[in-house]
Amino acid sequence: MKKHNFYAGPSILPQYTIENTAKAVIDFAGTGLSVMEVSHRSKEFVAVMAEAQQLFKELLNIPEGYSVVFVGGGASTQFAMVPFNLMNKKSAYLNTGAWSKKAIKEAKAFGEVDVVASSEDTTFNYIPKDYVIPTDADYFHITTNNTIYGTEIKHDIDSPIPLVADMSSDIFSRPIDVSKYAIIYGGAQKNLAPAGVTFAIVRNDILGKVERHIPTMLNYQTHIDKESMFNTPPVLPVFAALQTLKWLKANGGISKMHETNVYKAGLLYDEIDRNPMFKGTVTHKEDRSIMNICFVMNDGFEDKEKAFFDYASKRGMIGIKGHRSVGGFRASTYNALPVESVEALVKTMQDFESENK
Ligand SMILES: *Cc1c(COP(=O)(O)O)cnc(C)c1O
């Protein structure tokens, strides 16, 4: 039976990425050696790293004056690395979910954190819009896509102070204006590569403004200066990331991805709105994520949750259980998820309705 992979992360990758990485695990770049057993300083791997950085810049239209670095540690390490590198006395955060909260917690160790707005009292089911960004803070931090709650900031906001964004789960899903950001970071395992590599796009002139000593490995400048080769980078995930970047380029780039992502999300949201057995969890439609689509059983059908889960599982729907803090269901529709998987889920919801109403 065909499996439809809706996992939130790690999550579906292009078949192209998986096949080329599998081949390179056996024979990397004609060396007769596995990509897992060659030096990261070999000319073959140095070329992989350089091309990955170059394609990253090309696909996202990254202007001059920015660096792309690949490090380990996950987005969760970036939660501390951002304040370590940027914060003197004060920073500002928008609290839109569990990941924002974790980022806020880390920042508090470095000084005053102004949480400008929060949607926590309604289980993060919308994106607050009515807030003022303090001009005396060193930076303003947002989480553009809230993987757990299915809300998304789908445009590049204007900030009077340097803007920092966690884009772990929506990088490469829509065109962005990088020039509006000081730092964009994310774990790769949602839309780019297997777990193990973290990317950061850093505006070079934002660094060097804090007084404190920054440990070498937590200093963005270290990785910029050494082109992500200060220490051993996550070789295999970087190789896989390059494959995804090539796949993105060959498949029309980011604007084409965006078009397809909007179409896929639309198919599923339309069914959630139409089908009387289900309802969406995000209250403001404009905040609905195009990457993580959350829904629950509608009023009166709450007792059918397990039945639907089992029904969908039997039809090959994998990874649709909602995060424990929201319950219900979450279908992640990352770039690599084909339209036919969304159509299969929609059909499953329709058939469940006609068999159970
Ligand atoms: C998954 C996720 C994280 C955590 O990433 P790790 O790489 O596991 O540390 C952070 N932020 C967002 C938005 C995420 O989706």
What does this structure look like?
35% of the residues lie in helices and 17% in strands. With 357 residues, the chain is α/β, with parallel strands linked by helices. The protein folds into two domains: 236 residues, Type I PLP-dependent aspartate aminotransferase-like (Major domain) (Aspartate Aminotransferase, domain 2); 104 residues, Alpha-Beta Complex (Aspartate Aminotransferase, domain 1). The strands form four sheets. It has a seven-stranded mixed beta sheet, with helices on both faces. A three-stranded antiparallel beta sheet has the order 11-12-14, with helices on one face. Strands 1-13 form a two-stranded parallel ribbon. Strand 6 and strand 7 form a beta hairpin. Helix 1 packs across helix 6, helix 2 crosses helix 6 and helix 3 packs parallel to helix 4. The radius of gyration is 21 Å and the shape is globular. The mean pLDDT is 97. It binds pyridoxal-5'-phosphate. The site of pyridoxal-5'-phosphate has 12 residues, from helix 3. Pyridoxal-5'-phosphate binds next to helix 3.
Question: Outline of this structure?
Answer:
The protein is α/β, with parallel strands linked by helices and 357 residues long.
